Amino acid sequence: MVATTDIKTADGVVRGLRGRRVLRWRSIPFAAPPVGELRFRAPQPVQPWIGVRDATQFGYAAMQHRSGAQLGPRRQQPTGEDCLTLNVVAPSEPASAPRPVMVFIHGGGYVIGTSALGLYSGSRLALRGDVIVVSVNYRLGAFGYVDFSEFSTPAHQFDANLGLRDQVAALEWVRRNIAAFGGDPDNVTIFGESAGAHAVLALLATPAAAGLFHRAISQSPPADWGSSRADARLFARRCVERLGAAPGEEAATLLAAGANDIRRAVDRTVNAILRDQPGIFPIAPTVDGDYLPQAPIDAIVGGNAHRVPLIIGTNRDEGTLFSRLDDTLPTTADRMHWLLRHPEADGPGREDDSAYPNFGEHLPTTPGRLHQALEGSADSVEARVVAAYPGFPGKRVAIRMGGDFTFWRPAVRIMEGHSRYAPTYAYRFDFAPRAIRLAGFGATHALDLIPVFGAVGTPIGRTLTAMGGHRGFRAVSEQFQENWLSFARKGSPLPNWPAYTEADRATMIIDYPARVEYDPERAKRLAWQGVHIPALV
Question: Fewer CB in 10 Å around end: N or C, the chain?
């Protein structure tokens, strides 16, 4: 017989699973299902229930390409619009005081992903640090990050920034309910990777999130994402045109169309933009001047974000994962050339993720693409960047340049900006097991998730260290977890990690062994200054 455990929340009793060492509750609703008339609306309150609600199984992942909700070999989570749920993991041993809370936001380019992925369970992190781990779903792609508000009618209101609003609603749920699970609502750390790391930065810039979290960790954020209102409207119009909506009938079409029809129309619109306007990825929060008053990077640099302690960093070899999956896409040959021919546009960057169609095709990770990207740009960027990357146009150097452009370049601006107003801790993840190095990946995008969640001893961790490096990978995992947990407990990592300032730019190099460097890759940092991603045209 399966052991269960019941908890009374503000909305009703939920029944979870009682394990030997951890308690788990799965797919607890934090908002009403966004279906029917609530499609494209801000999240609404949960309807309280009578009796006990089962929370032992996962429900739906957010609407997405089905490969994005892959949980394992030949195992996929069903997708649907009724996806606004979260999961809670807590140590089974009673605590003498409320535990710190860590809320994880998954990545996936804002188009794929699910909190049900086994890697994200949080049980090892919860046990190691005596913390509560919450992982959340939020609306993706067409349903979370396309701004259809222009097509609102007196009868049908559409809201912007739905995915971001979902994340705020989840944090509001944590504020109201986490004490019942043994957590401290006054000690909440949000953390995320890739698009989830960008979501962390977006929450820093969202007024409605004030007071809902107290510390933030951003792992590999494409930090200058964020669509202007004009870009968002242009993109939404293209989407409804591809959906086949007649003029004046957009609202009715958006409400009546099947969810997969809408998803496919938006996916195809994105692919057309990636083909014709390299570097633009329009699935991102909208700077609407209201819910999100400024682009996250601008709000943070300008001191208009929540001034909470922040850990932020990138991986040394971010671009290698992307470069392996887009070699057959000829439309990307001059992506960086197109980007840097528009240096006057201080617009958002874009990123996709692994299981999404045409994953990574916009990243400048081949010599030809980067050479064209840098050639002849208006402000002599080519000369600066090439000088900072000896060996260009060698293939590996080109891949490094593309990853730096997408992730490290804007992350440095966040480090600089946030450190003026709140404690900021910068890192770079350099470690890679031997098999990963020999395969040419190095410390690639998303590799850090394995040590952060303590999965080095799992089948995936053992596979990655089959050719050696297990001891180092385990030590790196301990570094990550002890620093993340120290930060969650008291707002600072371990004492050997100094805060980042513009004066010294102290950066923890997470490796085996770890070390601190001051202003690492200074020439490259200076070379990328003033380089931005242009607007949608």
Answer: N
